[in-house]
Amino acid sequence: MRAFTAAAAGLAAALLLVLTITAIGAPDGTTSPKPLRTTVPAHP
Questions:
Q1: DSSP secondary-structure letter at 1?
Q2: Calpha distance 4→41 (Å, rounded)
Q3: DSSP characters over 12-38
Q4: How far apart are CA 17 and CA 13, in angstroms?
Q5: pLDDT (tens digit, 0 to 9) for every residue of the chain, 44 residues total?
Q6: Distance of CA 34 to CAs 8, 28, 30, Å?
Q7: Is 44 helix (H, G, I), strand (E, B) or coil?
Q8: Cα–Cα–Cα angle for 22, 6, 25, rounded to 5 degrees
Q9: Distance (Å, rounded) from C-alpha 7 to C-alpha 27?
Q10: Element (H, E) at 10
Q11: CA–CA distances in Å: residue 4 to residues 12, 17, 29, 34
Q12: Cα dihedral 9, 14, 20, 22 in deg (nearest 10)
């Protein structure tokens, strides 16, 4: 019974966290039009 109660409490906490993040929403802003460099350019 303790395991069931602990699992239910953990599930409720996770659900509350997800709902809180969903309610806050994504931050406002724009993405950069310039591409990011992910590798070092090769030297000829």
A1: -
A2: 55
A3: HHHHHHHHHHHHH-PPP----SSPPP-
A4: 6
A5: 999 999 999 999 999 999 998 898 877 777 778 777 777 777 76
A6: 46, 19, 12
A7: coil
A8: 5
A9: 32
A10: helix 2-24
A11: 12, 20, 42, 51
A12: -150
Extract the tokens encoding 14: 């996770």
3-state secondary structure of 39: coil
Q: CB neighbours (10 Å) of residue 24?
A: 8
Which pLDDT score is estimated for 44?
Answer: 64
Amino acid identity for residue 6 in this structure: A
